[in-house]
Design goal:
mainly alpha; Growth Hormone, Chain: A; 14 helices; globular
């Protein structure tokens, strides 16, 4: 790897480290903050839909733009814009204001997510990619390990405004790092198209469509974990978790996630993505069964440690599989379509989980997520497949 690429990869790591920290500070308290403004669970589910609309509309566009403009400029725009949105949250009070903020945040972060992932795929070495990517993610996760503890503690002791202020300040660190990056090549002018007889540059292949379907269903887990689980832990008589307790649970999950990433990257290199994705998604599903029927915060912390490892395994396995099957020169478009599958899944998951939670009870929503994840694990066995390389001549 050239010195310029190596330096840029390190700075990109700092950018993601700071972004992970600022989102981690907010993650355990955002839904509780919104809940305290008088919104119902169904309304909070609709806010999740508003957030997914931003991703739905702008991620495909960001994917196309990322292959045609400098990704560095997209990251700068996203960091500045998201900082403004974080600063506005403490002043919101009604469902329409929160919906506008959720839509705005996801809209600007779509530019961040696409450009950062595309640039990461460009900068990572091909040899032992899983091992390098695992170590890379381990360092990024350091920003998220202490952040939920800090966010929960600050909300419980000094109120909900300070965590948002902390997130605003951390954004400046990421902005400084991205401005120092040197690797940001100008977009290449497209050559006249030549028919690809080998099929290596085809985009909508069977393996690609398969990973899109698996990722789509996995969004039920991610949306539940982000929007509904903190409320469930706070209001369930089996837990009665405080903001600090929820922050500790999420912090434990991030710690075990960070500690496992280097190992998981090497494991994927050895056994392949399909086994890792199928087993981890299934085990997360079964873990929710314990949360539905057992109680006590010690159990929640232990479950957080377990889920942290396997949620990371699922995420990393899917992303490594995607990097292995994407055609060259189309990283932005591939990432845009991949994240669009998340948007479609999230658009369905958020309102459905809210309706189930309010209409059939909190335990029913937990069991629903568990069932969907177990089904998705079985589905991934058949859908997560490597691209077949064609031999010419």
């Amino acid at each position: 790897m050239g010195e310029e690429k190596l330096s840029s990869l390190r700075l990109l790591l700092v950018v993601q480290l700071s972004q992970n920290f600022r989102s981690g500070v907010i993650s355990p308290i955002l839904s509780l903050f919104i809940r305290r403004q008088g919104l119902t669970i169904t309304q909070i589910g609709l806010l999740g839909t508003a957030g997914m609309l931003g991703w739905l509309f702008f991620e495909p566009l960001s994917g196309v733009v990322a292959d045609r403009v400098r990704k560095k400029y997209m990251i700068v725009f996203a960091i500045i814009s998201s900082t403004i949105v974080y600063a506005a949250y403490p002043f919101a009070g009604g469902i329409w204001q929160f919906a506008l903020l959720a839509f705005s945040m996801s809209s600007v972060l779509s530019a961040f997510a696409i450009s950062v992932k595309a640039m990461t795929a460009e900068l990572l070495p091909v040899k032992e990619r899983g091992k390098t990517y695992g170590r890379y993610l381990s360092v990024i996760s350091m920003g998220g390990m202490i952040a939920p503890f800090l966010g929960g503690f600050l909300a419980a002791t000094v109120g909900y405004t300070i965590p948002f202020c902390v997130s605003v300040g951390i954004g400046i660190v990421g902005l400084t790092a991205v401005l120092m990056m040197k690797h940001d090549p100008r977009p290449v002018v497209e050559e006249p198209k030549v028919e690809d007889t080998s099929g290596t540059n085809r985009l909508m292949t069977g393996p690609f469509i398969g990973i899109l379907a698996v990722r789509m269903l996995f969004m039920f887990n991610l949306l539940f974990h982000e929007h509904f689980l903190p409320i469930y832990l706070n209001e369930s008589p089996n837990f009665r978790a405080s903001e600090a307790d929820i922050g500790a649970y999420m912090g434990v999950a991030r710690i075990t996630s960070a500690l496992s990433q280097a190992f998981l990257g090497s494991l994927i290199d050895r056994v392949g993505s399909r086994r890792v994705v199928a087993s981890s998604v299934g085990l997360i599903g079964f873990s929710y069964l314990g949360m539905a029927y057992l109680g006590g915060m010690p159990f929640v912390y232990a479950l957080g440690a377990f889920q942290g490892v396997f949620q990371e395994a699922a995420d990393m396995g899917m992303m490594m599989h995607l990097m292995g099957i994407m055609p060259e020169g189309r990283t932005g478009m591939v990432m845009g379509i991949y994240f669009e599958s998340e948007n479609i899944g999230g658009m369905a998951a958020s309102p459905l989980l809210g309706i189930v939670y309010d209409g059939f009870g909190p335990v029913s929503s937990v069991l629903s997520v568990a069932a969907i994840l177990v089904f998705n694990a079985a589905l991934s066995v058949f859908l997560v497949k490597e691209r077949r390389s064609s031999k010419i001549g």
